[in-house]
Amino acid sequence: MAIGRRSWPKRILVGLGAFLVVLALTVGGGVTWAFTSRDVSTIGAVDFTEELTVPPLADSRVEADGTRVFQLEMRTGQREFRPGQVTETWGFNGDYLGPTLRAKRGEKVRVQVNNRLDEASSVHWHGMHVPAVMDGGPHQPVDAGGTWTPEWTVDQPAATLWYHPHPHGATESHVRRGLAGMFLLDDTATEGLALPSAYGVDDLPIIVQDVRFRGSGFDSSRAIFSDTGALGDRTMVNGVLAPYRTVGDELVRLRLLNASTARTYNFGFSDDRSFALIGTDGGLLRAPAELTGIQLSPGERAEIVVRMRAGERVVLRSNKIEIGMDFWGTRFNGGDDTFDLLELRAAQTLRPSPALPALLAEPETAQARDAVRERTFALTFARINGREMDMGRIDETVTRGETELWTVRNSDGMPHNFHIHDVQFAVAEVNGQPPSVALSGAKDTVFLPPGTEMKVAVRFDGPADPNTPYMFHCHLLWHEDAGMMGQFVVVEPGGLPRLSVPHAHG
Ligand code: C2O
Ligand code: CU
Ligand code: CU
Fold first, then answer.
1. SS3 467
2. For this UniProt entry, which segments traverse the membrane (predicted)?
3. Proximal ligand: closest to the CA of 377
């Protein structure tokens, strides 16, 4: 009896011990598997068999008063990204992505947006200085079947901007399905510069997205332990999976746009050659800067110029990123991932290109020393300053013409970035230090790894509109949709905000 009484607890203990061992092995094995299988690399695995397509320049007509009018139609479509496998897509004026809009400083532009989708969306002009009612954010929804016709006068330096939907809470899925395009601006101050500028020849738009296919659609599910959002297992440039491009000039300008929903890239070349950084989000730098890598988080742009040698092939690549997390967080948020993006094939003889100008453009961004007011923005998932996005709440009221110093702090364990509508700002400090060259130009979006504090000088040139807010937000689109967004209005000195929230749209 005594034996029996002792053997039951013993058997239970042995059973429990065995169970725990199996559990530990399963969990440990699972975790090891999850960890080791989570990094993605396409280095050496892309065959570069498809010619890179270049989005067409959008047609426009110029009206009697000089207004340049564009048409954008949001449509559903299908594309065979992979031979024989059809993927359901959305696009502007086509199946996937959209045409490149192009206008010059001083020009009045109007865009007729037609929404042929079966749900409401919007079109936001990312990086553009526009009146708030023309901004295309969540307060300017375009209903299914509806139209919207914003117009404004371009008044900012030459730059590589872009456009994409911004519907409240659904930006990620609309961009993921293919709604994005470039908006290039030119100006007289820089049009005479000896820079590669033949669109599609020695001046190439490079829209980079990561993608994971599932059935006839895109997989937008977030992997376990991923804080940043859905990460793809391969990449596309201008909607092409394995692109090459033959180039015929010694110098080639690449206008890099990270149009991904969550992933950050660290752009460089397969032989680690250096390139010249000539522009950032809001336009040209004061002078070209030599770099071997530039990191861009979602929404950011960079213009780079690379020198080619006759007959060679070199691959535009994304190397491991500086994500500011421990080895675990780095692995599960794409920090260890590497991609072969695009092969550049130089012709056997190249047209000579003039040397890059020593001076490019005079910056027009605000100066920190002119700041008359400071504000602080604490980023924590999925809030800014502890608040979730509310269409009916104005978070900040700023005065037209004033310069402010905004401190943006990532007080969170995960990466974020920060985008401000309507403005181009100057980074004044990063963790108390002067900005790196990559952050030395005009910016509208900046990456903030965990623990980063950035001070940016920003001026609100107006026009004032106390009724209509602009957005500031994290451009990791899952974070944005989850509530990491706030609203500001620009008022005349002494003015007060008067918010009118649009009617609910299905
Ligand atoms: Cu690129 Cu508020 O967006
Ligand atoms: Cu924007
Ligand atoms: Cu974020």
1. coil
2. 12-35
3. 3
- Ligand 2 centroid, distance to 415 Cα (angstroms): 19
471 lines ligand 1 (CB under 6 A): yes
Q: What is the pLDDT of residue 38?
A: 76
Q: Which CATH class is domain 368-491?
A: mainly beta
> What rounded mean pLDDT belongs to the chain?
95
Does the C-beta of 124 come closer than 6 Å to ligand 1? yes
Nearest Cα neighbor of 469 from 488, 483, 486 is: 488
CA of 131 from ligand 3 middle (Å) equals 26
Q: Is the peptide bond before 463 cis (omega within 30 degrees of 0)?
A: yes
Atom 1 of ligand 1 has which residue's CA nearest to it? 126
Residue 268 CA to residue 206 CA, distance in Å, equals 13
Looking at this protein, which amino acid is placed at residue 309? R
Q: Which ligand gives the minimal distance to the CA of 167?
A: 1
353 CA → ligand 1 middle, Å: 35
Question: What was the pLDDT predicted at 30?
Answer: 66
pLDDT > 80? residue 213 = yes
**Model confidence pTM above 0.85:** yes
Domain 58-186 matches domain 203-351 at the CATH topology level: yes
Q: 221 CA to middle of ligand 3, Å?
A: 17
Rounded Cα distance, 454 and 254, in Å: 27
- Domain formed by 203-351, architecture: Sandwich (2.60)
160: Cβ–Cβ under 8 A, 6 or more apart, which residues?
A: 182, 184, 205, 255, 257, 279, 281, 301, 303
User: SS3 string of 26-71?
Assistant: HHHHHHHHHHHHHCCECCCCCCCCEECCCCCECCEEECCCCCEEEE
168 lines ligand 1 (CB under 6 A): no
Nearest Cα residue to 475 out of 435, 434, 419, 430:
419
Q: CA dihedral in degrees (79, 82, 88, 91; nearest 10)?
A: -40
Which residues hold their Cβ within 5 A of ligand 3, which is an ion? Answer: 416, 474, 476, 479
Residue 14's pLDDT band (boundaries 50, 70, 90)?
A: confident
HEC sequence for 408-466: EEECCCCCEEEEECCCCEEEEEECCECCCHHHCCCECEEEECCCCEEEEEEECCCCCCC
Distance (angstroms) between ligand 3 centre and the Cα of 394 equals: 20
Ligand 3 center–CA 114 separation, angstroms: 30
- Structural domain spans, the chain: 58-186, 203-351, 368-491
For 203-261, the three-class secondary structure string (H helix, E strand, C coil) is EEEEEEEEECEECCEECCCCCCCCCCCCCCCEEEECCECCEEEEEEECEEEEEEEECCC
Q: What's the CATH fold of domain 58-186?
A: Immunoglobulin-like (2.60.40)
The Cα–Cα gap between 51 and 442 comes to 32
Is 455 close to ligand 1, i.e. is its CB under 6 Å away? Answer: no
